[in-house]
């Protein structure tokens, strides 16, 4: 096994599956998963995530516990994350950004149809594979989110890509992912976080009051992204409605 990377949730390794195919194995930090009850909950969440249709997502192949190590195995997607690609090559524009938007919102549509809320949709969780964008970590973020009460000390997610309700510690649903998707599309178009801030209070103020400039977006995306960034989750469209708006 070769380590691909590590982060706040755990470490990711490249390995071979039973059929010789390449797979990604994420081993979670023990502090995140806690005791036996929480681990069982995680495995139930991971099993739910396996029901997500594989279009534009990295399929979840397995999850389990070995010697107190909790792991999740997914399809390996050879390609950089959107975060890395934009950092190295610059923002996306025109047709490439529209294709990115269609693929990722289709992934969210499938994730939500399976009864899952991603809770950590961001540029680092969008991989650009040879056959198009793939959304990852939807089976991990949701499970971990249910293991902790939302507070300033243990918020689950990535601050600039949270929704206003998520950063406020309120209950989040599919509409929260829609807000995070729109923020991610803006990052893809500009190379900058739409809601920047050096601290939790600063980001909180930006998320609940700032309205970013959307003029950089292609016309086909601008209206949809604007609705997705509504501060009130009740005013945001569903993933299916966004896809229809973009493709019609």
Automatic annotation (TrEMBL):
<dbReference type="Pfam" id="PF00069">
    <property type="entry name" value="Pkinase"/>
</dbReference>
<dbReference type="GO" id="GO:0005524">
    <property type="term" value="F:ATP binding"/>
</dbReference>
<keyword id="KW-0067">ATP-binding</keyword>
<protein>
    <recommendedName>
        <fullName>non-specific serine/threonine protein kinase</fullName>
        <ecNumber>2.7.11.1</ecNumber>
    </recommendedName>
</protein>
<dbReference type="InterPro" id="IPR050660">
    <property type="entry name" value="NEK_Ser/Thr_kinase"/>
</dbReference>
<feature type="domain" description="Protein kinase">
    <location>
        <begin position="1"/>
        <end position="248"/>
    </location>
</feature>
<dbReference type="InterPro" id="IPR008271">
    <property type="entry name" value="Ser/Thr_kinase_AS"/>
</dbReference>
<keyword id="KW-0418">Kinase</keyword>
<dbReference type="GO" id="GO:0004674">
    <property type="term" value="F:protein serine/threonine kinase activity"/>
</dbReference>
<keyword id="KW-0723">Serine/threonine-protein kinase</keyword>
<dbReference type="InterPro" id="IPR011009">
    <property type="entry name" value="Kinase-like_dom_sf"/>
</dbReference>
<dbReference type="InterPro" id="IPR000719">
    <property type="entry name" value="Prot_kinase_dom"/>
</dbReference>
<keyword id="KW-0808">Transferase</keyword>
<keyword id="KW-0547">Nucleotide-binding</keyword>
């Amino acid at each position: 096994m070769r380590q691909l990377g590590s982060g706040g949730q755990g470490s990711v390794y490249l390995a071979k599956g039973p059929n010789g195919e390449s797979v990604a194995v994420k081993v979670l930090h023990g502090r995140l998963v806690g005791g036996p009850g929480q681990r069982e909950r995680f495995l139930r969440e991971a099993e739910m995530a396996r029901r997500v249709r594989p279009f534009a997502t990295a399929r979840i192949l397995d999850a389990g516990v070995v010697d107190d190590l909790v792991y999740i195995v997914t399809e390996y997607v050879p390609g950089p994350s959107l975060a890395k690609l934009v950092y190295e090559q610059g923002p996306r524009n025109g047709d490439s950004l529209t294709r990115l938007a269609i693929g990722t919102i289709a992934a969210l549509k499938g994730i939500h149809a399976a009864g899952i809320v991603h809770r950590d949709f961001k540029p680092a969780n969008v991989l650009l594979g040879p056959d198009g964008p793939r959304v990852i970590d939807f089976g991990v973020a949701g499970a971990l989110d249910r293991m902790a009460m939302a507070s300033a000390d243990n918020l689950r997610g990535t601050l600039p890509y949270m929704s206003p309700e998520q950063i406020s510690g309120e209950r989040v649903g599919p509409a929260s992912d829609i807000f995070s998707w729109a923020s991610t599309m803006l990052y893809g178009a500009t190379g900058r976080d739409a809601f920047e801030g050096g601290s939790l209070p600063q980001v909180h103020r930006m998320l609940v009051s700032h309205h970013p400039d959307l003029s950089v977006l292609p016309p086909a995306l601008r209206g949809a992204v604007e609705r997705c960034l509504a501060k009130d989750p009740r005013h945001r469209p569903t993933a299916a409605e966004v896809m229809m708006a973009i493709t019609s």
